[in-house]
Amino acid sequence: MREKFRQFMIGRYGTDGLNQFLSIASIVLLLISLLTRFSLFTWLGLVLLVLCYYRSLSRNISKRTEENYQYYALKDRVDRKFRGLKDQWANRKLYHYYRCPKCRQKLRVPRGRGRIQISCPRCGTQFIKKS
Asked: Of 25, 32, 18, whose CA–CA distance to 49 is shortest?
């Protein structure tokens, strides 16, 4: 039986990070649907599960690899965003964080200096804020 499955999977894509995410998300949605009795979660969970199996059994390996690459690019952007927020939260007693009104660059200013003039290193705009 194991050899038959191995023969069946030859030339197929298999599993990757996006498939793992899809399967976990489908399980979570199906559990939520059991708890809430809301059928939308059931259908979304089933759609994600079917998509996961479709990707695993697909023979278009280059397209599935590109999808996985895009998934990891999006995941890295989200991780960087949350890592920045985590660092900002950890330093909240030492620094104020402001955005430049012109270019939206995030600027870090030490606390406890009173009203200070802040100049943006990217665009050179100067503005006054309380630190």
From this structure: 25
